[in-house]
Amino acid sequence: MKPLIFGASGLIGNACARLGDEYCGTINITDIPCIDNHGGSHLLRMELSTFAMAHSQPIKQISEFIEKQQPDCIINAVAWSHVDGCEANPEKALLINAELPRQIAMMGRRFSLPIVHLSTSYVFDGEKEVYTESDSPNPLSEYGKSKLSGETAVMEVLPDHSIIARTIFVFGEEILKKNFYYQVRRAVTSGTPLNVPCDQWGNPTYVETLAAGLIELLRKKRYGLFNVCGNESMTKYRWACEILDSLNAGHPLAMSVKSKDLGQPAPRPFNASLSNEKFSSACGISFDSLNNDLVKMLGKN
Ligand SMILES: NC(=O)c1ccc[n+]([C@@H]2O[C@H](COP(=O)([O-])OP(=O)(O)OC[C@H]3O[C@@H](n4cnc5c(N)ncnc54)[C@H](OP(=O)(O)O)[C@@H]3O)[C@@H](O)[C@H]2O)c1
């Protein structure tokens, strides 16, 4: 596999890129310089919001890049996943989370490249205990609505050659060290407790297994909708405690707080837990236990 990765600087995109370095050639789209309207040059990622508009300069640049580099699939890990930011600016959310994926999928159709598009269990309202691929979405937030629109757009453009991978509570090695694992670790280093919701459920998902699973689904040509997530469902507070245990730190560093007391502007589903059965049987890759994955994180920066 030689994937063209959009969002290769992010948590999931970068894990796919690291994996690609091991056994596929990888193209990091963020490395392509492009010319802005004022004649200056900067990295393509800064232009991706205009990429959502037809006939933009980035479309031309990406087309030329694909023709030259000949990738054999696309992974779209770009998103505006700032849930409260999306609530305040739904138009921007739709542009990045729905219109941009549509344009990327059109690029896939034009060059006959299958696509993996990342999505989220925030497309659900959280009223059910565990969600499968056949459950009907009902997003509560502008983020969830924009991500659902992105799924629909990709499936409309590439109905037979797209993989929509819904995930939740992703953690692991990351360049910017902004995911929840690092937030908890910083609480330990600084001694400042972290407020963590005790009523929001999900599956902690190790990014290395997630990335390997996405590549494997592509390799096996298993197209369609998949929940790609860890096996264990728990509250975010319990997840924080598991991380603290793995670091031999005390639980007081995580403060259990009800969602209503966090003052988050956007509603979150209380239950965003997913079943990964369809993924495991289609892909042949299984997630390890959270404890084992946390041990793997110990040696990492
Ligand atoms: N992480 C999770 O727990 C989680 C849970 C459920 C679903 N997901 C889904 O998984 C996907 C990837 O998530 P992630 O956690 O890897 O996200 P992330 O770490 O925030 O990375 C997002 C990527 O998108 C790029 N990006 C954002 N806005 C952009 C713009 N306007 N133009 C160009 N590039 C832009 C970022 O580039 P820069 O770094 O250069 O800004 C970065 O490469 C998303 O679809 C998200 O909805 C993630």
Describe the structure.
- With 301 residues, the protein is α/β, with parallel strands linked by helices.
- It has a single domain (3-175, 205-231, 272-287), classed as Rossmann fold (3-Layer(aba) Sandwich).
- Helices cover 41% and strands 16% of the residues.
- The chain contains eleven helices and 14 strands.
- The chain has helices at 11-23, 48-51, 57-69, 83-88, 90-110, 142-157, 180-190, 207-219, 236-246, 277-283, 290-298, and strands spanning 3-6, 27-28, 33-35, 41-43, 73-76, 115-120, 162-167, 170-171, 194-197, 201-202, 205-206, 224-227, 234-235, 254-257.
- The strands form five sheets. A six-stranded parallel sheet has the order 2-1-5-6-7-12, sandwiched between helices.
- β6, α6 (142-157) and β7 (162-167) form a beta-alpha-beta unit.
- α1 (11-23) crosses α8 (207-219) and α5 (90-110) runs parallel beside α6.
- It starts with a strand and ends with a helix.
- The model is unreliable at 33-47 (pLDDT under 50).
- The site of NADP nicotinamide-adenine-dinucleotide phosphate has 22 residues, from α1, α2 and β6.
